[in-house]
Structure formats: C-alpha cells, structure tokens
Amino acid sequence: DALTGRTLYLAQRKYPWLVHAREPEQWKGPFAQIVFCLERQDPAVATEAAGAVLTTLTGLLVTFIGEPLTARLLRKAWPDAFSDASIEET
Fold first, then answer.
1. Which of 12, 21, 61, 80 fits 70 for a cystine, CB–CB 3.0-4.6 Å?
2. What is the DSSP letter of 17?
3. DSSP letter for each residue of 24-42
4. How far apart are CA 66 and CA 82, in angstroms?
5. CA pair distance 55, 49, nearest whole angstrom
6. 14-24, pLDDT tens digit by residue?
7. pTM reported for the whole predicted model
C-alpha cells in the first residue's frame, strides 16, 4: 500500500483527476482509488494514465529492490507479457 500510495501521489501531478473525494472507509487501499478513477475516464486517457501508474510503480520497485528482482516479480505476475529475451535475470 505504501508503494502504491506513493505511486498515486506522483501520478497525480500529471493526472490530477486520480484524486477523487469519497468517504475514506470506502477505500480498500490506494490501488482501489486508482481503479475507481480510471474507470471514470475516456478509455484512451485511462490507458495512458494506467501506463504512467505502472511505470511509476515499477520505477519505485527498481529503486527499492533492484532491477533483477523487480523483473522477476513482474514476470511472475504477467508471464505472457515477457519473452525470455526481453528480461535477463541475474
């Protein structure tokens, strides 16, 4: 939640609509807020913002745990998105 919250904070600079006023008890974490806000946007805008959010989150992960471990986690989460040649594990 802390990394997702920081990602949301950083992404709001370019996508201020990622902030949506709702009752705090309705949120199930920062990722729920991101999804809620993305669902209310034009698909092209939502796709661009979602890409920015994932890029920011990935960058934060690389900063904290390093590129090799981040790559392994992403490959495990989305195995079909990565070819063997696209990420070299060390």
1. 61
2. G
3. GGG--SHHHHHHHHHHTS-
4. 18
5. 10
6. 999 987 655 55
7. 0.76
Residue written as token pair 């745990």: 65
Six token digits for residue 22: 């709702």
Single out the residue of 6, 2, 8, 81 nearest to residue 38, CA to CA: 8
Checking if the pLDDT of 79 tops 50, the result is: yes
Evaluate whether 82 touches 70 at the Cβ level (below 8 Å). Answer: no
Contact 75, 22 (CB under 8 A): no
Helix ranges restricted to H, 1-90: 2-11, 30-39, 43-65, 67-77
CB 7 within 8 A of CB 49: no
Half-sphere exposure of residue 23: CA atoms within 13 angstroms, side-chain side = 2
